[in-house]
Amino acid sequence: MIRTQIQLEEQQYQTLKMLSAQQNLSLAELVRCALTDWLRANPPLTVSRQEQRQRAIAAAGRFHSGKGDLAENHDAYFAEASAS
How many folded domains does the chain comprise? Predict the structure, then answer.
């Protein structure tokens, strides 16, 4: 295991301390369990560099702006879109 340090709000700490006593578990174990549950519910996006490259290649040319001068004036169009 890797040792780390976190800061909790007073109410969080008090609630964890109470649960720790009720369930006969350490605060650290309760935090690990909660984190495990959260990570299961919110898995990280894992896309390989190869998959990113393939997606970019597949997207190339699929969208049309209707602007004939987009390559030359993309900065101006970007600034215009960002302002609105």
Answer: 1
